[in-house]
Amino acid sequence: MLTLDLRCDKKRPLHRQIYEQVRTAILTGRLRAGQKLPASRQLAQSLGVSRSTVTQSYDQLIGEGYLHTQTGSGTFVCAEIPDNLLMTAPSPRFQQGCFTMPTEEALPPLSAYAQRIRALELLPTAPKQGLISFRYWRPDLSLFPIHQWQQLIKRHSQDNTNWMTYSRMPTGHPRLREEIATYIGQARGVHCSPEQIVVTQGTQQALGLIAQLLLEPNDTVALEEPGYLSARKIFLSRAARLLPIPVDGEGLIVRAANGLVEQTHRQPAKLVYVTPSHQFPTGAVMSLQRRLALLQWAQETRSIIIEDDYDSEFRYAGRPVPALQGLDSASGNLTNARVLYIGTFSKVMFPGLRLGYLVLPPALVPIFARAKWLCDRQCSWLHQSALADFIGKEHLSKHIRRMRTVYGRRREILIQALQECCRSFGPVAIEGDPAGLHLMAQLPLAQAGLCDHQLVERARRKDVDLFSLSPYYLQPPASNDRFIFGFGGLDEADIQEAIARIHSVLQDAVDN
Amino acid sequence: MLTLDLRCDKKRPLHRQIYEQVRTAILTGRLRAGQKLPASRQLAQSLGVSRSTVTQSYDQLIGEGYLHTQTGSGTFVCAEIPDNLLMTAPSPRFQQGCFTMPTEEALPPLSAYAQRIRALELLPTAPKQGLISFRYWRPDLSLFPIHQWQQLIKRHSQDNTNWMTYSRMPTGHPRLREEIATYIGQARGVHCSPEQIVVTQGTQQALGLIAQLLLEPNDTVALEEPGYLSARKIFLSRAARLLPIPVDGEGLIVRAANGLVEQTHRQPAKLVYVTPSHQFPTGAVMSLQRRLALLQWAQETRSIIIEDDYDSEFRYAGRPVPALQGLDSASGNLTNARVLYIGTFSKVMFPGLRLGYLVLPPALVPIFARAKWLCDRQCSWLHQSALADFIGKEHLSKHIRRMRTVYGRRREILIQALQECCRSFGPVAIEGDPAGLHLMAQLPLAQAGLCDHQLVERARRKDVDLFSLSPYYLQPPASNDRFIFGFGGLDEADIQEAIARIHSVLQDAVDN
Question: Do A319 and B65 lie within an 8 Å CB cutoff?
Fold first, then answer.
């Protein structure tokens, strides 16, 4: 007689339990090939379940080839279940959310690319709840005009069904590309036609496509020191050799680049990655002079500039400097255009949107279109068409204007709080231009006898998530008393509370 | 005096025209550094526009650094606009939708990867309107329960805001992964826990991740001959060497694989790509015996099987054979698991959804999670959560059951029509099992003296889009009289009409 152990379990209906236990009985040999199973009516009775529950399980087992019926004589275990399957089948469920790397021998041979990304610290860590966090990538989502967005999503999902099929336009929704071209033309001085734009799954995919299409292993990529980690990781995943170029208050020191190339006997850089609107993490805005020097340098060394304009929308004082892309293409020589421009909607809209864009020299559009098609066909058509309207109906520009005031005020509160906090320990230096969602500050740690890691550690014990500048350097930094303060996601009270806690950490250290 | 030429143009508001013409005047040297501009009031008057239109243009030009104001004296062209920008700036607009490849010299040096994808026929071509098309990848979207889907999209976009942020779960929405695990466990005999699933942007991204993480250039990939072109292109883009293994009515001929490896003095295949549920394009279902032989071969040669189960849901007769993944993992030896299972929602839902999934041996999950995070962070959270509900509320299973009847009937109509059509020319051979959204048919072309390309060409003149089997072969096929008939997107009248037109093509050829 077949004995089954059924339990009341909302997640595993009875027919599933019967199916699984019979299947296991077959695979472990408890039920043998050719063996007859109890009639469904009989089994239902003995288990105290409805007959349809049993027939449902039997049907599935028949469908999957474990059982077969012989008209008039009953249900049998299939003869063709081969011996080598008749082994214990342990539950393959492994530890929930467990992304730790298994040991080498458990893996099939991985590619060199996989080996490289194995070595990178890649996965996101969930922040502890209840922390006040100076995370720099966080816009304030509570102030996003969510109602307008929801309305657009609803309308675009109901008004047409264009989102059901492939668009055959891997470079993106035509109306969205037009809106982007107009928007960055006005706001950023980017000169392009909609056909030069490729809509991507955020900056991440834009950088990934560039790295795949333009880099060979051991190619040199020049980047800012300190600089943006996610970009660095993408270049490292493609086996690029990184050439860190120091940054000052005017952005990348172009003069230093030449020297470094000679000094290291390297090939000229194939790509130069910069964040000129608000250098990450120092916050410097690249001056017009430096921009022109960089363009000239790129022209001379035939390198390509990647202009990541991630934080360009939020500028609180002074006038914006036109994008490198606009300065370059304004020279009119499009076939020699050297700038690939990257924009993202993660900060002005929300990170989960996963939409960004690349502005390419016309000659590069066909190869990027092919790569995007090969990679994932296209970005979400529903989100693209809703976003086109969100920009076209000026919801985006209104939101940006509003947030500029909010963020500008938060920045002031933060600076004020930092200055008050540090008053008794020494001068605090606020670096970077009044722009973006974070600032960099050099804190007076000497009197407290702390280094950056210690301050981060102790602030964390007081539930403040603080970020040292050190991890953003490739080479050891000259000083370890600088910090990145993201203020986008914190309201004014939180900012003041967090800085007060940092003050008490410093005070405690001085007192002891 | 500054002369501007303004036109009435809905797409280019007046302030934009003023901005552009002044900017061009500066960049081309018509307005010189330091030159004074007319006062906004004065210019507005002379152009016959409102003053605010002019100030809007001026403000933008000031913002971008082309103009500056001196209190009390007026608006001037900036001195720091450097000489080398003062050249003609032609409109960079290039031909709309033009994805043809530019000549070599216009491009910056491309990577080997880019060179390879340049050589592939990659981009989609838009079908001519009004054609009756036997495209094989098209489900009937008019029968999709769109209302339920729209309701779910609306609800999930309004009930919570989880879709605004990064989930920190690059492998996908936990509830969707649970629903998928249950669904493929029941329907396909796939044995996995939700943690083994990685949600991807369709099959395309799943294959792309596999190729990147497991393939080195010159690695051998065995695949079905004839076979699926998109998979072939992804392997070629990674410089794989393809080993075509012939297919018969039971699917991949495993015995032939061994012989071919020896014959070609190749390394054993690193990957074996198969479509066992409904072989593309022959329609053969891989027999249980072949499946077990393939698993054993993979175990012996230490190769990895990619099981693309793209068409498994639609089976019109006979019992489904359990997935290779289930047969493999049922052996209980998870650390030696050799099957990567790919599923897609493009056919059972709609192609524009861009959601599919990979089922991985546990040891491979961490590296795929890292690669997905590096690639594009995550798939659309809104679509993932809506899809989880669509499956959980049984809308999907109901839709599949309904479509199985509809498609099954269309398949019968098609077979009947083909048989009647060909009766006077010779026997028609319908190949492939009763499953999927297409069938393969060998048509009697001899009497009409046509080859496959000629029939395709002539059918097209009668507005029928027909697909020969030839392009799906790597090596020249033995016969050129076989065709793929996709019936998913055609209603019964269209099927009959199209086949009638094919009949008239054949009749015309015989008559002449």
Answer: yes
> Is A130 part of the contact surface with chain B (CB cutoff 8 Å)?
no
Give the model's pLDDT for residue A391. Answer: 97
B-proximal residues of A, 194-223, CB under 8 Å: 195-196, 201-202, 204-205, 208, 212-216
Put simply, the answer to whether A373 touches B122 (Cβ < 8 Å) is yes
Cβ distance A214 to B125 less than 8 Å, yes or no, reads no
- Pick the more confident residue, B288 or B389: B389
Beta-bridged to residue B467, according to DSSP, are: B484
Residue from A157, A325, A381, A401 whose CB has the most chain B CBs within 10 Å, to mutate: A157
Chain B contacts of A350, Cβ < 8 Å? Answer: 164-165
For residue A398, how many other CB atoms are within 10 A of its CB?
A: 12
Interface of B with A in 432-461 (CB under 8 A): none
Q: Burial, A121: exposed, middle or buried (Cβ in 10 Å; 0-12, 13-18, 19+)?
A: exposed
Residue type, B213: L
Helix and strand counts by DSSP (H, E) for chain B: 16, 16
Does A288 reach chain B within 8 Å, measured CB to CB?
Answer: yes
| B269 Cα to chain A: minimum distance (Å) | 12
User: Considering only CA atoms, which of B143, B152, B145 is closest in space to residue B392?
Assistant: B152
In the predicted model, is pLDDT for residue B422 greater than 60?
A: yes
* Alpha helices (H) in B215-322, listed in sequence order: 229-237, 254-263, 288-301
Round to whole Å and give the CA distance between A174 and A388.
9
The answer to whether A234 contacts chain B (CB < 8 Å) is yes
Judged by CB atoms closer than 8 Å, whether chains meet at B153 and A150 is answered as no
Percentage of the residues of chain B whose pLDDT score is greater than 70: 90
Contact B122 A370 (CB under 8 A): yes
Burial (CB < 10 A; 0-12, 13-18, 19+), residue A279, is buried
Q: Where are the beta strands (DSSP E) in A220-345?
A: 220-225, 241-248, 251-252, 271-274, 304-308, 339-344
CB contact under 8 A, A89 and B196: no
pLDDT score at A450: 93
Residue B260 has pLDDT above 80, yes or no: no
CB contact under 8 A, A381 and B170: no
Kindly give the pairing relationship between strand B241-248 and strand B251-252: antiparallel
pLDDT at B324 over 60: yes
B367 at the A interface (CB within 8 A)?
yes
- Highest mean pLDDT among A21-35, B40-54, B131-145, B405-419 belongs to B405-419
Residue B279 makes CB contacts below 8 A (sequence gap 6+) with B224, B247, B251, B252, B285, B286, B432
Say which range, A150-164, A418-432, B2-16, B125-139, has the weakest mean pLDDT: B2-16
- The residue of chain B with its CA nearest to that of A158 is B150
Read off the pLDDT band of B104 (50, 70, 90).
low
Asked if residue B386 has pLDDT above 60, the reply is: yes
Q: What is the ipTM of this complex?
A: 0.83
Give yes or no for a contact between B431 and B284, defined as CB atoms under 8 angstroms apart. yes
Residue A171 tokens read as 């470079």
The alpha-helical segments, DSSP class H, found in A331-394 are 365-376, 381-392
Which residues of chain A carry a pLDDT beneath 70?
1, 27-29, 64, 80-106, 264-266, 319, 330-336
Pairing of strands A197-200, A356-359: antiparallel
pLDDT of residue B189: 85
Report yes or no: A48 at the B interface, CB cutoff 8 Å.
no
- List the single best residue of B23, B156, B173, B201 to mutate versus A (max A Cβ within 10 A): B201
Dihedral, CA of residue B404, residue B406, residue B411 and residue B417, to nearest 10: 170
Mean pLDDT confidence for B151-168: 93
